[in-house]
C-alpha cells in the first residue's frame, strides 16, 4: 500500500486546517495510507518511507515557518538520493503573498528531485497587524476544498500508480 505523508506546522490554526483538509481528501482515495505529522515530529524515516508528500506551512516573515525549515534541515540529508521522482504538493497559509515560502520549498524539493504534481496553493489571510497575525485563523470553505482536492489528487495518483 502506498503512503502519503502530510507534514505541517501551524501557529494560529490556518495551516493546520489546510493540512487536515488535504488529509480528508487523501483519505477518500483507498488504498492509500495517509500520515499527517507535525513538522516538529516528522523525521528522516518518515520521509524515506513515504511514496508522496504534501508540505503545509504558514508564511512567517515572508518565508516558510521556522519549524518547517527545521523539519527540512533535519531530514534533508537523511532522504537525499532516496526519494527522487516521488510526487509532492505545497500548501501555504500566508499573511501577505506566500510566494517566497513556496519558492523555498520548491528549492528543497528540487534538491531531493521530487516531482511537483499540483500547483501550489496559497491562502492569503491578509493579516498585517500584530493582532491579526497572532489571531486564530479560519480558512474559508472554498480554500479548504482546494486543499482537499490536492490531497485527493495526489493520493489518487499514488493509488493508481501514476506516480
What are the SSEs and their pairings?
Layout: E1 2-8, H1 14-27, E2 32-38, H2 44-49, E3 52-60, E4 63-64, H3 66-79, E5 87-94, H4 99-112, E6 115-116, E7 121-124, H5 130-134, H6 141-160
Parallel strand pairs: 1-2, 1-3, 3-5, 5-6, 5-7
Antiparallel strand pairs: 3-4
Helix pairs in contact: 1-6
What descriptive keywords fit this protein?
single chain; 163 residues; alpha/beta; Rossmann fold; 45% helix; 24% strand
Summarize the structure.
The protein is of the alpha/beta class. The chain has helices at 14-27, 44-49, 66-79, 99-112, 130-134, 141-160, and strands at 2-8, 32-38, 52-60, 63-64, 87-94, 115-116, 121-124. It has a single domain (2-160), classed as 3-Layer(aba) Sandwich (Rossmann fold), CATH 3.40.50.360.
Task: Characterise this structure.
- With 163 residues, the protein is of the alpha/beta class.
- It has a single domain (2-160), classed as Rossmann fold.
- Helices cover 45% and strands 24% of the residues.
- It is built from 6 helices and 7 strands; from the N terminus they run E-H-E-H-E-E-H-E-H-E-E-H-H.
- The chain has helices at 14-27, 44-49, 66-79, 99-112, 130-134, 141-160; strands at residues 2-8, 32-38, 52-60, 63-64, 87-94, 115-116, 121-124.
- Strands 1, 2, 3, 4, 5, 6 and 7 form a 7-stranded mixed beta sheet that branches.
- Helix 1 links the parallel strand 1 and strand 2 (32-38).
- Helix 1 packs across helix 6 (141-160).
- It is globular, with a radius of gyration of 15 Å.
- The chain starts with a strand and ends with a helix.
Amino acid at each position: 500500500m502506498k503512503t502519503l505523508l502530510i507534514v505541517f506546522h501551524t501557529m494560529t490554526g490556518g495551516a493546520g486546517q489546510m493540512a487536515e483538509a488535504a488529509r480528508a481528501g487523501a483519505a477518500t482515495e483507498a488504498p492509500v495510507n495517509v500520515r499527517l505529522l507535525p513538522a516538529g515530529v516528522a523525521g528522516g524515516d518518515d520521509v524515506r518511507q513515504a511514496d508522496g508528500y504534501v508540505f503545509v506551512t504558514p508564511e512567517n516573515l515572508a518565508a516558510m515557518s521556522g519549524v518547517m525549515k527545521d523539519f527540512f534541515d533535519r531530514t534533508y540529508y537523511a532522504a537525499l538520493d532516496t526519494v527522487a521522482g516521488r510526487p509532492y504538493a505545497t500548501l501555504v497559509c500566508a499573511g501577505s503573498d506566500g510566494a517566497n515560502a513556496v519558492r523555498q520549498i520548491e528549492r528543497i524539493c528540487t534538491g531531493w528531485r521530487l516531482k511537483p504534481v499540483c500547483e501550489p496553493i496559497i491562502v492569503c489571510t491578509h493579516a498585517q497587524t500584530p493582532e491579526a497575525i497572532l489571531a486564530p485563523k479560519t480558512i474559508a470553505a472554498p480554500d479548504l476544498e482546494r486543499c482537499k482536492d490536492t490531497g485527493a489528487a495526489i493520493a489518487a495518483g499514488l493509488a493508481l500508480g501514476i506516480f
